[in-house]
Amino acid sequence: MKRLLIVTFGFISLFVNAQNPDNSLLWKISGNGLSQPSYLFGTVHITCDATLSPKVNAALDATRQLYLELDMDDPNMMKEMMGGMTMKDGVTMTSLLSTEDYKLVEDFIKSKTGMPLKMLDSYKPFLVSAMLMPAMLDCKAQSIEQSLIDASKKQNEEIFGLETVQEQLHVFDAIPYKEQMEDLLASAKDDMANDRAEYNKMMELYNAQKLNELMAFMKSSKNKTASHDDVLLINRNKNWIPRIEKIAKEKPTLFGVGAGHLGGENGVIMLLRKKGYKVEAVK
């Protein structure tokens, strides 16, 4: 389940960059030929309070469209996701677990979702873990992305995605299924106690807008998939940069991506600065 927390915040680069010391989740992008500024906002995909701050609402007012990691407003998104949830080459959870461990995970999944594990046996363990996220909260889950979508719709603005569903699901094929399964098993063994503790700490840092401390905390994680930061974060960040450049030149835009994508040497902030843009914290 720890790997799910990586997805929630975007996996953190292994380097903390001293040139990015500001505590902020909202960043203004200007210069390098942009006629109007765009904004970069670090989100968290599940929370107890998805209320947007006044400065984020001001950024929405100052821009003309919203780009998230995925086009979550696309009515075909769920259909596309369902088509990419299964493991390749006939791999199943049954084949990845001993009989004893399978029973443990089966009981765990049934207690959290009410579904028998056989219905999910071919699903990528990473995505099964995503179904369990609300169980970590002591409240009704809310989504910051949904709040951004709702605000954009009120302004009659379009919502788009920086990457396709297929591109994002490919990430979960590039990470060994066995490692994904080991993390899900660990969550079952302690009934998500460690997941909940890590999530609460990260939310504390997120709410305080302390990107570098959030990075350091994520760096200390012992999850099995931590070595795959190239797939989870770096490659995606680098793929986004030319898209962000093109989009921002065409129209002032608010880009909302997982907060962990912002910081670090290979984070979106530094990558944009290296391309000549001025990226400054909005206080």
Give me the number of helical elements.
13
* Average pLDDT rating: 89
Q: Terminal Cα separation, in Å?
A: 34 Å
Strand line-up of the largest beta sheet: 4-3-5-2-1-6
Structural Rg: 19 Å
Would you list the SSEs in sequence order as H and E?
Answer: HEEHEHHHHHEHHHHHEHE
Q: What's the story with the biggest beta sheet?
A: 6 strands, mixed
Low-pLDDT stretches: 1-21
**Domain module count:** 1
Report the helical percentage. Answer: 40-55%
Protein architecture, described:
It comes from Flavobacterium suzhouense. Residues 1-18 form the signal peptide. Its cofactor is Co(2+); Mn(2+). This protein has one domain. Helices cover 48% and strands 10% of the residues. It has 13 helices and six strands. Strand 1 and strand 2 form a beta hairpin. Residues 1-21 have low confidence and may be disordered.
Explain briefly what this protein structure is.
With 283 residues, the chain is α/β, with parallel strands linked by helices. Helix content is 48%, strand content 10%.
What is the fold's blueprint, element by element?
Layout: H1 2-9, E1 26-30, E2 38-43, H2 54-62, E3 65-68, H3 77-82, H4 93-96, H5 99-113, H6 125-131, H7 144-154, E4 158-161, H8 165-174, H9 177-189, H10 193-207, H11 211-219, H12 229-250, E5 253-258, H13 268-274, E6 278-281
Parallel strand pairs: 2-5, 3-4, 3-5
Antiparallel strand pairs: 1-2, 1-6
Cofactor: Co(2+); Mn(2+)
Subcellular location: Membrane
Main location: membrane
